[in-house]
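Study this protein:
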Amino acid sequence: MKGRQRQAAPAGFTQAQGHVLIEVRLSRLAQLFHNLDPAPFREKDLDPDAEAYLVESAEEIGPDLPIALVFELPAAEIAQAEALLPEALAHYFTDRALSSRRTLNRLLRDGRTALLIGLGFLGICLIASETINQWGASLPARVLGEGLLILGWVALWRPLEIFLYEWWPLRRRMNVLRQLAQAPVWIRPHPDAAPDRPLSQARTSG
């Protein structure tokens, strides 16, 4: 942990108490949540813009620095925010991380299935190409044999795309969501409302 704390925060972010701060100023607590979601605060979805900001900020900071989520609110809403926000954010991002994990598992499962199908099809194409080549060295036979080989390798394009490129962005996003779910949540009033009040830590989420 000491090694982590010695790292500098990325440009545009500040540090406090050993954490890089992701700061959000709100005019009211409800602004953080999706206004069409009828669920109680602890189970509400976040506003899409708010979620995007938090996720993109965590991605920019990276996995090697501890983060804290800091929300500035009117003084009248501080008590409610301290009671609700840590649990609500931990619940939301944990659920999103689990959803990303399920998506990743489905993708890898589809990739394995596609790989088996592709290898089987490639094997058929290799056998067919070899059989055609045994017919003779005529131009049509060579063209057909080479065409089957190309077609067989093309069948492996989708599983290769999954295993080389598509899985790791999902894995990275899942890790970012887990990082957000485990981040401490700190609440403070707007500086212009109560400039002398220090940063207060609500109970740690997760």
Summary: Helices lie at 2-5, 48-61, 78-133, 139-154, 157-182. The chain has a mean pLDDT of 84. The chain has one domain: 2-201.
